[in-house]
Design goal:
Length: about 130
């Protein structure tokens, strides 16, 4: 895993622990990590009646996304997923070609904003 990679859950926890007081060096580093990581993440909502797990989602998007090496998929529930790409340029390429039709179902994508928490409800049915 690359040196600047950080677990999404750990990042969320760190962001929750930030205070609104004076900026400390640790808080500034955490904010920089959040911005750097958010540039590699897309939130996705698969519009489908049946539930998809992260393995099925990964297997379905890989052919369409031309087998992105290093893609990490985390399930948020309710057919919502977090896609973490190895590089911001890969994320940008996938986002630029959205929305995606995966096996006849719509996959809605949106970028993660570094100051927003990740929740399944943060991705609305936009279809």
């Amino acid at each position: 895993m690359e040196a600047d990679a950080i677990d999404v859950a750990e990042l969320i926890q760190r962001l929750k622990e930030l205070t609104c007081g004076e900026d400390s060096e640790v808080e500034n580093q955490t904010r920089e990590e959040a911005v750097r990581l958010s540039q590699k993440i897309l939130l996705g909502k698969f519009i489908c009646r049946r539930r998809m797990n992260k393995q099925e989602m990964r297997e379905n998007v890989m052919p369409s996304w031309m087998a992105v090496n290093g893609l990490e998929v985390e399930e948020l529930g309710n057919n919502s997923f977090v896609f973490t790409f190895p590089y911001p340029s890969v994320r940008d390429r996938i986002l630029a070609r959205s929305p995606w039709n995966i096996r006849g179902h719509l996959l809605v994508l949106k970028p993660l904003l570094p100051h927003n928490p990740i929740r399944a409800g943060s991705i609305k049915n936009e279809a």
